[in-house]
Amino acid sequence: MHVDHLQLTDFRNYREADVDLARGPNLFVGRNGQGKTNLVEAIGYLSTLGSHRVPTDAALVRQGCDAAIVRARLAHEDRSILAEVQINRTGSNRAQVNRAAIKPRELPRYCTSVLFAPEDLALVRGEPSGRRRMLDELLGQIAPRMQGVLADYDRTLKQRNTLLKSARATGARSGSLATLDVWDDRLVAFGAEIIAARDHLTRRLAPFVTEAYATVAGERHEATISGVLSVRGGDPEDAAATDPVLGTPDEPVTVAAAADAFRGALERRRRDELDRGLTLVGPHRDDVLFQLNGLPARGYASHGESWSFALAIKLAGAAVLRAESTLGDPIIILDDVFAELDESRRERLAGAVADYEQVLITAAVFGDVPEQLAAHTVRIEAGTIVGDESESVPAPAPAPGASPAPAADPDAA
Q1: Where in the sequence does UniProt note compositional bias of the Low complexity kind (predicted)?
Q2: Is 367 one of the annotated binding-site residues?
């Protein structure tokens, strides 16, 4: 799939923006701070319902405004749709597809993308939360219903933690907390599905990571990934946990097996949880272990190796989406990546993404980007599109009587 046209209203530094996009590579060039990343960030939002730069939506709304609008004309095979989202500074967001209201969490059904930015170095060197988020964003694009499962798990986790905190404050013990068992059942039901889905995805990613690392780095190293489950004793956020384990490499985690392990872990940690007022096991405390030649990449990989590993993870995600998504190729977004790479890695990365249906690149310096990715170049200056150096696709005409913002959806999340 690809984006034919992007329109923004009050998004980041753009009061208004209209830009035509081509199939194949599209290069946005401009000095730092001009708004290049804001354009690709808007497209990424349609796929992941979040920003790769900030944790909350409020920062996406232009200063002094109440809402931002992202509107994109998407094309897949012979089908064209108009996807829109209104991002509100306060209150629930709203979304439309072909002018019909939908829940915002349904947007990934219509748009898939994989974005790589300098911040993604934290996938290798940073905290487990970033690696969990990476898996969950991919899951949401491959199987959009998982967005609901993840949201249900988060709500249940908050309720259970509230109960545990209350029990700690009042000195209640497990025997008098019958309500806790009810929340345990809900937590296990949602959590087991997440654990199994992440395990399946990690196993699908693994061979692509190995291949992509060799492609990007230009040399053969054994780059591997595996899941780390807190319900089986591996908790990177708990110094008292046992060594990280998932099971044997040939043993996929089923929903039933995850549920049994989760329930058993909750029983074992009940006293600790009451003492601390916190849920200590579950998918919210899991991790993904990245290894290079048998050693953890975090702590052992050099800067260049860490960059190659982070790129390999994103390229592996794109390969899985290409294979499993009904939308075909995801949009590949490379945000200010080439400035961080040497010339050989630039050429190898360009070759790795060249056959995707659409690739969006941002760069401060035109010469940093291999020539094969600069066929359609758009120049950006101070939140304004000042130059399009190739033939563009015509912008979509607005629907008759269309309002500038999506219609309200009272059930939207």
Answers
A1: 404-413
A2: no
Tell whether 299 is in a known binding site: no
Whole-model pTM: value is 0.86
Look at residue 266 and tell me whether its pLDDT is greater than 70. yes
Asked if residue 32 belongs to a known ligand binding site, the reply is: yes
Beta bridge partners of 106: none
Assess whether pLDDT exceeds 70 at residue 410: no
Q: Which residues pair with 97 in a beta bridge?
A: 83, 100
Cβ-contact 291, 297 below 8 angstroms: yes
Q: Is 33 annotated as a binding residue?
A: yes
Structure tokens at 14: 């753009």
Residue 247 has pLDDT above 60, yes or no: no
Q: Please say whether the beta carbons of 112 and 88 come within 8 A.
A: no
- What confidence tier does 388 reach under pLDDT thresholds 50, 70, 90? confident
pLDDT value, residue 213: 95
31 is in an annotated binding site: yes
* Residue 230: both structure tokens together: 């807190």
| Cα(188)–Cα(191) distance, integer angstroms | 5
Domain 1-112+326-413 indexed as CATH 3.40.50.300: yes
